[in-house]
Amino acid sequence: MSAARSSIPAPVVATRRVARWLDTLGVSPMALDDTLAWFNPMWRVHQLQARVVRRVAETPSAVTLVLQTGPAFPALRPGQFVVIGVTIDGVCHRRAYSPRTLPDEPGHIAITVQRQPDGLVSTYVQDSLPVGSMVAIEAPSGEFVLPAALPAEVLLIAGGSGITPCMAMLQHLHAHAAHTRVTLLYFARSPVDRIFGQELARLARQWRQLHYVPVDSVANTAGVQLGQASGARTLDLPMLDAACPNWRQTVAYCCGPAPLMDAARALWHTEAPHGTLHLEAFTAPRASGDPDARHAVTLRRSGDTARFDAAGNMTLLVAGETAGLSIKHGCRQGICHECTCRLTRGTVQDLSTGQRVEGEGQPVRLCVTSAMSDIELDALNG
Ligand SMILES: Cc1cc2nc3c(=O)[nH]c(=O)nc-3n(C[C@H](O)[C@H](O)[C@H](O)COP(=O)(O)OP(=O)(O)OC[C@H]3O[C@@H](n4cnc5c(N)ncnc54)[C@H](O)[C@@H]3O)c2cc1C
Ligand code: FES
Hints:
The protein is 23% helix and 30% strand. With 382 residues, the protein is of the alpha+beta class. A hairpin with a 6-residue loop joins strand 5 (100-101) and strand 6 (108-114). The two termini are 40 Å apart. The structure holds flavin-adenine dinucleotide and FE2/S2 (inorganic) cluster (FES).
């Protein structure tokens, strides 16, 4: 990808060396960052910043922000996410977004944000984040990426805003491996709601190897449980067979709302157990344990020991907050690890994997963990 930088620029490497040297003298690397930021906020080498340089309305409820990144921002692999920190009323809220590079604008990336009902950050981004604003940005991360050796055929399945990592992959394949056969199945409520709809249609006309299948359906986009939306088109076997006859042998990526991902997971489980399906969820999984259970939680922190009850259908973070505690957290999506504690007694469920976790010393992320018994935890981040 032409805009991605393959190595860290020499001035950034030199600045990091100076920061390490200062560290040995007892001067915080952040002090150097703050000094650099005084000249230009994007010269930071530790707490990275990006500037909003353009806003593009994609649909009535989705906006693309073009962000200018600083020299220390690392190369991006298509499909990865970045965590963006947006300050609202003095508090920095961090959320993950799946960016794409802009071939004609080195040093810039684009994120597309879909407004969520009652969503704090997505609403703020839509309504109140003007061009010129600075946002915190972290290094790209995530495993929802194309393999280094690009396959001959790729199947992308997207629902709603789940198109964003797929679009990054699609652009990469078009630019660097245009011989790859790509099928894109894209569920949106209607053509008006289809993010990048015109761009995708244009790309499909130009690129013969792209088989683009737009599907108008609320069932895979509006949080409706499969089968509940009468007449709605959902991901099923006939649809997959028609769109991509070779799907069982094709490397597949699926990103979208839970019903779409559940449908894909079930199809691969029953029809292609040896196939390759990569999944990426945008929302933290919900706890589905017993709402009437009351598990006693003891949380030891540096300053105090907090005690609260957790129902089986709540994450430990929500249970603590419901009890009135202020608990250190960042993304609330299981990706930043700020809420990580060490389990010292009891059993919990990791909602991101569905696994039971028990035994002393296991790290648990409170935002994606629910209690299965009385538990004790040591906070790791204060
Ligand atoms: C790896 C990763 C990549 C992501 N990439 C993108 C992206 O490219 N574009 C994008 O728009 N979003 C993306 N997201 C989602 C994004 O991080 C935020 O969760 C989203 O913007 C909502 O944040 P909020 O503060 O507005 O909502 P919150 O205030 O955190 O939540 C408000 C309510 O909305 C619900 N909600 C939150 N997010 C969703 C959702 N995606 N679908 C349905 N209900 C939801 C919550 O359950 C809650 O009830 C990504 C998430 C992850 C984990
Ligand atoms: S708040 Fe980010 S992992 Fe829990």
